[in-house]
Each structure stands twice: as C-alpha cells, then as structure tokens.
Amino acid sequence: MEQHNIIETITAIKVDNPVDKIIRQLKQLISSGQLKPGDRLPAERILAERLGVGRGYVREAIMKLEFFGLLKTSPQSGTYVAGLSIKILDSLLSDVINLNKEDFGALIEARYYMELNAVKLAAQRRTDADIAELETALHDHEKKASQGLDAFEEDMVFHLKIAAATKNQVIESMMLIVVPDLIRTIVENKVCGSDRSERAIAEHKNILDAIVLGDAAAAEAAMHLHLDEIMNVSRGMKIEL
Predict the structure, then answer these.
(1) Fold (CATH) for 104-234
(2) How far is CA 179 from the centre of its chain?
(3) 66, exposed or middle or buried, with CB in 10 Å at 0-12, 13-18, 19+?
(4) Are 54 and 153 in contact (CB under 8 A)?
(5) Residue 137: which of 117, 122, 116, 121 has the closest Cα?
(6) Which of 52, 87, 115, 240 sits a CA distance of 20 to 30 A from 11?
C-alpha cells in the first residue's frame, strides 16, 4: 500500500473526557452488581481521590446522572443509586454516555435555543448576587485569556452562571449537560478561529450589561449575536465530540 493511502486510513484517537470516564466507572460497578439500586455512593472527595480526577468532574457527573434520575441526592444522607432495575440503569447509563456523541450541529442548535430563553429569564430574575457572580466569571475569563492561557472553564462558568440566574433548576441542569462538552469542542477545534476567546469576552460584556439593566430583549439580542457565528459555522459541519 502506498504511503499516502496508509496515512488516509489512520484516524484520530478518541479520548473520553473525565465526566464520561466517571460515568463509565459507575456503569461498570452497577452492571457488575457492586453498586445496587438504593446503595449510597462514596463522598465526592473520596470518589475524586480514587478516580484521580478533580472534584468538579465528579460533581458534574453526579449532577448529570441526577438530572436523568439515575442518582438521588439527599442533603442529610448523601447520594444514592436510583431504585430502578439493574437492566434499566445499565441501558440509561449508556444513553447518558452517548448523549454528547451525537451530531455537533444538533447540539449547537439545542444550546442556541436554550441559551436565548435562559438569558431572557436571567435578565428578568437576576439578583445582586447573580450579577456579582457573573462579573466575577467575566473577570476570571478576561484575566486568563489575557495571559494567553486556555480559558475554556472560565467561558463555561459564565454561561452556567446565566443559567443559575434563571432560578429554574431544569434549565440549569440541561445547560450543565450540553454546554461543557460543546464549549470544550469549539475551543479545542478552533471552530470559530484562534481569536474567538477575545471576541467572546467582548460579547459576554454586552450580555452582562443587558442582564444588569434587566432588559430581556437586549439580553436575547446580545446572546443571539454571541452564538450566531457558531450556529452558522456548524451548519453542514460534523465534529466528533
């Protein structure tokens, strides 16, 4: 086989993100019967230490599984495996893992419409505490990006703080599922160009200004402008998440 034909047969190695790895581990524990319906999970700190990941990843995995009803958390007693049959749990866990592997354009579209509605509610319902958290998130994003560092997490936090300001836990949970992997993919693949972070900060400022003013229409327009580029780029484009 000629060299250029060999090169064409080589495909990129797909690496699971930490959240998917955690969910896979829990799936294996449930499938093997080591974790049964009704069993309590170890504390987040212990899980993070055993899995060798940050507690933030463990928390994100637990929140994602809570959203789908696979885990139940009680403030007094901890987090438990839902009281479903092992067969159903195993099937649902597979669906959760594969959720972020679907068509890139479809996920962008879902995020687009969720964020347009979320930012309107945030403008109407935000508190002084929400504004302070958004300002901190924007400052952190700007500071890290100005140092030439990857500011993926700071970008993500800004959007999740908007979701929190809606005071709607379902919206917040849905955003937590969709946003992290999408922003990570956009940044890593430079989908919108290498200067996207700098432009995103300016757009975030416009979104925040509208939220501070309580102007839902202006907030929606600013978010539309922020997400319009990636919507246009994603059309006809397919990326493995």
Answers:
(1) Four Helix Bundle (Hemerythrin (Met), subunit A) (1.20.120)
(2) 3
(3) middle
(4) no
(5) 122
(6) 52
b or e along 156-172 (b: 16 or more beta carbons within 10 Å of the residue's beta carbon)? bbbbbbbbbbbebeebb
> Residue with structure tokens 């990570």?
184
The helix, strand and coil proportions of the chain, stated in percent and rounded to the nearest 5, come to: 70, 5, 25
CATH class of 18-99: mainly alpha
Q: What is the pTM of this model?
A: 0.60
Domains of the chain, residue spans: 18-99, 104-234
